[in-house]
Design goal:
about 50 residues, 2 helices
Length: about 50
């Protein structure tokens, strides 16, 4: 995607992140510890947040 298009989308649309909730290719990222470290995300698996 062109840089200007991403900037334009961010400025015109209020919140485009919610579209990612419905993207099945992103489903299961919370179990990919390597990806989480690369993106510098906190552990997202449920077991890291609550005692099971």
């Amino acid at each position: 995607m062109d840089i200007w298009r991403g900037t334009l989308t961010d400025r015109i649309l209020e919140d485009t992140d919610s579209d990612k909730l419905y993207d099945r290719s992103l489903d299961g990222f919370q179990h990919d510890e390597g990806l989480n470290q690369q993106l510098r995300l906190a552990p997202m698996a449920l077991g890291h947040w609550v005692e099971l």
